[in-house]
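RECORD TYPE: inverse folding
INPUT: structure tokens
STRUCTURE:
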């Protein structure tokens, strides 16, 4: 990206107050929250900027802040994260959203800041950074910043790819925006669509209506756990599902910001709109799986396609054990997934309550199989395995054996295919390790005649015959 990602929009201060509820108020039938701690973070456009900066992107934020404690706190949090601030003067108070929480649940939200106020004129530096942007993300939270005339003029004239994340109370996007990213509820309010039919038909119908009405390049309608629907100049929409289902959703706050920021960054890097939306769906899904805004401190900050955080697998194992379940693990390269692999994995899963696959990394496969392997990279191999119903999690390891990963996970059962059973079969190098904590080591039947090496050899032989015949 030749210039920074410039986020433009309404910022606010989010505060989560966490505590314990053990009694009811004596003068009203409401719970009493005993505060145990509080966490501040930028909200609105500030959260979008923070999420983009966490990915290593150069970020500038054009927003409006009042001269008060909340505005100062937002500025402190953002500058500490490396975001450059270009504030307009905001009359009145900086808006705040305070969530009172206990046991992971929000009991009450308190909003401060009063009615929206028109901001002052943008400083010259703000207009200059917009002109030099590599990409622009408009993060509208409906408090009036995007109605500021000088700011809208600068957005209209900017040459960078522009992503507009709208709000039903905000203005229309400037003409020529590359991508608009409403969720389905916002889209219905923006178009007045009654929502007849399925969610997909509503998103398609209303998405095309908004694209034509606002004169923008495309509309990506975010659909929560169902991914996104991209409405572009062609008549057929592109449906982009998430890479995998999220079993437990702790907090979706900020998922739309993560989606829009990722899309803007991808467009700046040269991606076409469909590619940008696919990257955005993957990033938003990973963000929600890591706990959303409430889990920012532990969120997976690896780009889409890189290794999942070890903590996610360990959390799965802990949950299964807490319920008295059995943790099963198996391992291998799984370079070209075939029927033999699937048979082994299905049999392994039936031995317990979750199956973790320890997957050799690309470096590990090269050391074991030679410089021409693997055929498929570790990210693709992991994704294929995770798409199987019998696989609950994948752990990628770099060593020649998964001993380190096993020592961390300590499965109750370690499974290998039947090629390790019978007379003359090689000894399992992990057997003594697993038995050391009381785990069991078993083999399961293997489908004869299926192997990755044989598949590769057959493919090369067939390719050679085709080339020879063509001559």
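DESIGNED SEQUENCE:
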């Amino acid at each position: 990206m030749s210039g920074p990602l410039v986020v433009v929009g309404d910022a606010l201060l989010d505060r989560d107050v966490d505590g314990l509820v053990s009694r009811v108020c004596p003068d009203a039938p409401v719970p009493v929250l005993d505060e145990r701690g509080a966490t501040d973070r930028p909200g609105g456009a500030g959260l979008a900027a923070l999420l983009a900066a966490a990915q290593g992107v150069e970020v500038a934020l054009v927003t409006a802040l009042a001269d008060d404690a909340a505005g100062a706190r937002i500025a402190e949090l953002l500058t500490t994260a490396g975001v450059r601030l270009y504030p307009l003067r905001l009359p009145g108070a900086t808006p705040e959203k305070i969530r009172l929480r206990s046991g992971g649940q929000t009991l009450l939200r308190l909003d401060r800041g009063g009615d929206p106020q028109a901001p002052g004129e943008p400083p010259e530096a703000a207009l200059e950074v917009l002109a030099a942007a590599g990409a622009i993300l408009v993060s509208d939270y409906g408090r009036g910043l995007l109605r500021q005339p000088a700011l809208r003029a600068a957005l209209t004239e900017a040459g960078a790819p522009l992503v507009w994340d709208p709000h039903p109370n905000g203005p229309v996007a400037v003409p020529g925006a590359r991508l608009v990213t409403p969720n389905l509820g916002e889209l219905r309010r923006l178009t007045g669509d009654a929502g007849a039919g399925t969610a997909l038909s509503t998103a398609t119908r209303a998405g095309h209506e908004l694209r034509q009405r606002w004169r923008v390049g495309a509309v990506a309608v975010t659909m929560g756990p169902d991914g996104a629907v991209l409405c572009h100049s062609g008549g057929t929409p592109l449906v982009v599902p998430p890479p995998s289902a999220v079993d437990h959703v702790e907090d979706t706050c900020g998922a739309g910001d993560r989606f829009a920021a990722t899309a803007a960054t991808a467009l700046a890097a040269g991606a076409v709109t469909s590619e940008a939306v696919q990257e955005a769906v993957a990033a938003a899904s990973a963000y929600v799986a890591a706990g959303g805004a409430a889990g920012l401190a532990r969120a997976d900050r690896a780009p889409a396609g890189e290794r999942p955080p070890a903590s996610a697998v360990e959390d799965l194992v802990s949950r299964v054990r807490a319920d008295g379940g059995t943790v099963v693990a198996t391992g291998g390269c799984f370079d070209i997934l075939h029927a033999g692999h699937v048979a082994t994995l299905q049999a392994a899963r039936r031995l317990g309550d979750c199956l973790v696959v320890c997957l050799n990394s690309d470096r590990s496969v090269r050391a074991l199989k030679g410089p021409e392997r693997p055929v498929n990279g570790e990210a693709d191999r992991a994704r294929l395995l995770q798409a199987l119903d019998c696989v609950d999690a994948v752990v990628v390891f770099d060593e020649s054996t998964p001993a380190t990963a096993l020592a961390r996970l300590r499965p109750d059962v370690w499974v290998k295919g039947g090629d390790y059973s019978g007379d003359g079969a090689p000894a399992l190098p992990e057997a003594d390790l697993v038995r050391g904590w009381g785990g069991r080591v078993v083999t399961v039947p293997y489908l004869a005649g299926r192997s990755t090496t044989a598949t590769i050899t057959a493919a090369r032989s067939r390719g050679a015959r085709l080339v020879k015949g063509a001559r």
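NOTES: The chain has a mean pLDDT of 86.
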